[in-house]
Fold:
Amino acid sequence: MTTMIQWEPFNELRDTMDRLFDEGFSRPWRLLSPAENQAAFPVDIWETDDSVEVQAALPGVHPDDVNITAVGDTLTIRALRSAPEQTPRHYYVHELADGDWQRSFSLPTGVEAGQAAARFEHGMLYLTLPKSQAVRPKQIKITPGNNGHMITN
Structure:
């Protein structure tokens, strides 16, 4: 005896939507193509009174394989993660992409790129870009005199 199952036209759509909610929103990089995924290392960029601060996660990257440039108001971070030399593997999950990663960002303000400081610890890049003197906040002091009247010539 053969059992027949009624075809539900929306089952495939429902399964796809379930996968989107299960994987897509909790791990959005899975929705990117492999080329886009390689460039999707996460960063935080914030501003203080004196500098622009950047923190980038570059797991498995050696500090010598990181290139940082600042031209005008654009910061570019480029990193190379080399494939380890080993025997072929049959992966169940393969999310650690090898290759060349690059991201560029428009900075919120002018910086002194020549005075930037960078350090690399445990796969994290920390970058401090001092703001240019022209855009740093200036304190204007009031000098007493003439009982509050303007002096004109």
Q: What stands out?
A: Confidence is low (pLDDT under 50) at residues 34-39. The longest helix spans residues 11-24.
